[in-house]
Design goal:
The complex is a heterodimer of chains A (173) and B (558).
Chain A lengths: L2 H17 L25 H4 L17 H5 L12 H13 L3 H13 L4 H11 L6 H13 L4 H16 L8
Helix pairs in contact in A: 4-5, 7-8
Chain B lengths: L4 H7 L30 E4 L2 E5 L2 E2 L5 H10 L2 H8 L3 H9 L5 H8 L4 H8 L4 H11 L8 E3 L7 H13 L4 E4 L7 H15 L4 E4 L3 H9 L5 E6 L4 H6 L4 H13 L3 E5 L4 H4 L8 H15 L3 E3 L7 H5 L3 H14 L3 E3 L10 H14 L6 E4 L18 H11 L10 H21 L7 H9 L11 H13 L4 H10 L3 H16 L8 E3 L3 E3 L21 H8 L13
Parallel strand pairs in B: 4-5, 4-11, 5-6, 7-8, 8-9, 9-10
Antiparallel strand pairs in B: 1-2, 2-3, 12-13
Helix pairs in contact in B: 2-14, 4-6, 6-14, 7-16, 7-17, 8-9, 8-19, 8-20, 9-19, 9-23, 12-14, 14-16, 19-20, 19-22, 22-23
Classes of the chains: A mainly alpha (173), B alpha/beta (558).
Chain lengths: 173, 558
């Protein structure tokens, strides 16, 4: 994919996110002015850095109060973790000696903006004998282009290759 | 033959109702050191594993590929494989070798090397190693809250009582699958009424379970099964790549999750490739590590009958728990399925984990009478509460369950029953009567409950999903019925899903929603005088000293 295509995909993903109430906007939740990676001393985030935790609509996590729920200022779409928070938790995990958890959170981070029903379909499509190789590769392309999820796209591509060799594609059973 | 009278009496003891078999290596009926288990080996070329445990890369199945790609710290692998397994085993049970140092080795082993290392340890050494390798300093446990009628009021009341007894996690499931959303809400509301901060789950089919979590009805999941042979993994309708992806799906919604595996599952499902239970379980543990999942429920689990039947099987079960923790993965150490007809033997089944302490001694102590346990019964249930607590008191061990008084039980059960009554009213679900609230408050099992219209309940449960009800509606229902403290607790739970603190290894919430995990409550055991000591945990020590059935000798009248 050319750089222009990549740029278009990024913008499209951002537009799609800003129009989708249940999605995390890419700007929300980024930690202001903090370049230093977080570690064990920054944990728990809710106690140590509540200012850095935002909801998907950009509210501060401390605005999730009973009063705001009752008066409708906060609703279900605010009660989701953002890519920025998963990034911080990933840093904490990796710096506490658990890099695999960080990799899991990186995949998860990409999935925060994918709608619930699509996430469930994605999982089902990876189960044995569900998808052809081409279907898995098409899904990878969609993840990359539509949801700007390159890590998850790579996961699907890797599965496609391995499922072909180890006979887990549709029709192999 | 004339019967020998003592042997006749012995035959009538409960232990003879259990099943036992001799080893059959080729069918995987062997705890560890199976005759077909591979010898440990690894070949790394240009950063890629080209051979592992005697198998060439071209012959790798999906599990081998996944572990070779993601599961092993290759930087230390050759050094570790070249280190004598006895030496690594020795380091594990030696208090003078730090946990961190051992993890450099354990995370760089192959499954065959791991099985070889664990096989060096006897039961006492496994206990020594486990108390050091457990990721979280404070040991805890988890409970089940279920009943055979899927009665929501009883689930809520049992959940509240267990919460008050000090457990940080509670799990429900269904007798009839369609009840799932209702049971999930009932255990959540009951647990928050019991102690704000307890997290709850509802064990159902993978997609349904994630769907409940997405609506905010659950806070974590653990019945995400992985297996040690390719054939059984496929029969379980997953691959390592689908399960690894599912793990990320949960994290993307801020939900804690752990995988499930355990000795005997492959033998039960008929495809062991002739390998021992420990070797196959080692593969499961490395799959978990590879997926970046923070925890694992293992230790026989629902297949405990298989390791329980072979020689040395209970040693193997403790060994697989130890291996999980030695990979720096949170361990919910089984003890969650009815194990034996013998009270002596079911105590023996859990005693290693009990003495050593694990992240969760049981991945489901039955917080209901076993007749109501829809997970097919647990090793310990509510009627064992006082025995279990007395063992904790006798040995000065925190087994994760604390005594409460009868008055406290009545009060908290009533509170939970009233809360779920309010939620049902607020959500337009079939009414919970005052008579049901009273029955759940004073009852012990589902026979004590008035019968509900199960057809209406099932329809209403499905309606929760089709109507798009979320946790916000639950919070509003509680608030509208003036049950503000429980409303606040359910809200705080939802708020924590935005923070992600409880996604870290061995994380749970203490009072005041303080998140404690292997990050800020790391196990620091280094021998006598270090690590978790019950008598330094004043609140729990006092509660055990003052169990309701202990007399005060200074106030006795002779």
């Amino acid at each position: 994919m050319s750089e222009v295509d990549d740029l278009v995909a990024r913008i499209a993903a951002q537009l799609q996110q800003s129009g989708n109430a249940s999605s995390a906007s890419t700007s929300a939740g980024t930690s202001a002015g903090s370049e230093k990676e977080l570690g064990a001393a920054d944990y728990p985030l809710f106690e140590k850095h509540p200012d850095q935790i935002k909801t998907p609509t950009g509210k501060n996590v401390e605005e999730i109060t009973l009063e705001n729920v009752i008066n409708g200022k906060v609703d279900a779409k605010d009660m989701r973790i953002t890519p920025a928070t998963l990034k911080l938790q990933g840093e904490i995990a990796a710096n506490a000696g658990r890099p695999a958890i960080q990799r899991n959170f990186q995949r998860a981070s990409e999935l925060t903006s994918v709608p619930d029903d699509v996430v469930l379909d994605l999982y089902n499509s990876l189960r044995p004998f569900r998808s052809t190789k081409q279907e898995l590769l098409d899904t990878a392309k969609e993840l990359r282009d539509k949801y700007h999820a390159p890590i998850c796209a790579g996961w699907f591509e890797e599965a496609a290759e391995n499922y072909e060799v180890n006979k887990k594609l549709k029709g192999d059973n | 033959m004339e019967r020998q009278k003592r042997f006749e009496k012995l035959e009538k003891r409960p232990v003879h109702l259990d099943g036992f078999v001799k080893n059959w290596d080729d069918e995987g009926l062997v705890a560890l050191n199976g005759k077909n288990d591979p010898k440990p080996s690894i070949t790394i070329e240009n950063g890629v594993v080209t051979e592992m445990d005697g198998k060439k890369k071209a012959d790798f199945d999906l599990i081998d590929k996944y572990i070779a790609e993601y599961g092993i710290n290759l930087d230390n692998a050759e050094k570790t494989l070249n280190t004598d397994s006895v030496k690594i085993a020795n380091m594990m049970c030696d208090p003078n070798v730090s946990r961190a140092e051992i993890i450099e080795y354990t995370t760089a082993m192959t499954p065959a090397k791991a099985a070889e290392v664990i096989s060096q340890l006897n039961f006492a050494e496994m206990i020594m190693a486990t108390q050091k390798m457990r990721p979280r300093r404070t040991p805890m446990t988890q409970v089940h809250a279920t009943n055979t009628l899927d009665n929501p009021v009883e689930i809520a009341a049992d959940a509240a009582e267990a919460a008050l007894r000090g457990v940080p996690e509670e799990e429900t499931t269904t007798a009839i699958a369609r009840y799932a959303p209702m049971n999930a809400i009932s255990i959540m509301v009951g647990a928050q009424a019991g102690r704000p901060g307890v997290i709850t789950q509802c064990s159902v089919e993978e997609v349904d379970e994630l769907s409940l979590g997405m609506r905010g009805f659950t806070a974590y999941a653990e019945t995400i099964s992985v297996y040690g042979t390719d054939r059984v993994f496929t029969d379980g309708d997953d691959t390592p790549w689908s399960k690894g992806f599912l793990a990320s799906c949960y994290a993307s919604r801020g939900l804690k999750m752990r995988f499930t595996s355990g000795a005997g599952s492959e033998a039960m499902m008929g495809y062991t490739e002739g390998k021992s239970m420990l070797y196959l379980e080692a593969r499961c543990i490395y799959i978990t590590k590879a997926s970046g999942v923070q925890g694992l429920q293992n230790g026989g689990v629902s297949c405990i009958g298989m390791p329980g039947a072979v020689v040395g099987g209970i040693r193997e079960v403790l060994g697989e728990n130890l291996l999980c923790m030695s990979l720096d993965v949170e361990c919910a150490s089984g003890c969650d399925q009815a194990f034996s007809h013998s009270d002596i033997r079911r105590t023996g089944r859990m005693i290693g984990q009990f003495i050593a302490g694990t992240d969760y001694l049981s991945s489901g102590y039955a917080a209901e009478e076993n007749m109501d346990n829809t997970f097919a019964g647990s090793n310990m249930d509510v009627l064992d509460y006082d025995d279990y607590i007395t063992l904790e008191r006798d040995m000065a061990i925190n087994g994760g369950i604390m005594p409460i008084t009868e008055e406290e039980s009545i009060k908290i059960r009533h509170k939970a029953a009233v809360a779920i009554q309010a939620v049902f009213d607020g959500l337009g679900l079939p009414q919970i009567t005052d008579e049901e609230v009273e029955a759940a408050t004073y009852g012990s099992n589902s026979n004590d409950m008035p019968k509900r219209d199960m057809v209406q309940d099932m329809k209403a449960a499905q309606g929760l999903m089709t109507r798009g009800i979320t946790v916000v509606d639950v919070i509003k229902a509680l608030y509208d019925h003036d049950i503000k403290d429980v409303a606040e607790a359910v809200l705080k739970l939802a708020q924590q899903k935005v923070c992600g603190d409880y996604l870290q290894t061995s994380a749970v919430f203490l009072d005041g929603w303080k998140c404690t995990s292997a990050i800020n409550n790391a196990n620091d055991y280094k021998g006598p005088g270090t690590g978790y000591r019950l008598w330094e945990d004043k609140d729990k020590w006092d509660r055990l000293e003052n169990v309701p059935w202990a007399l005060d000798p200074q106030k006795l009248e002779f």
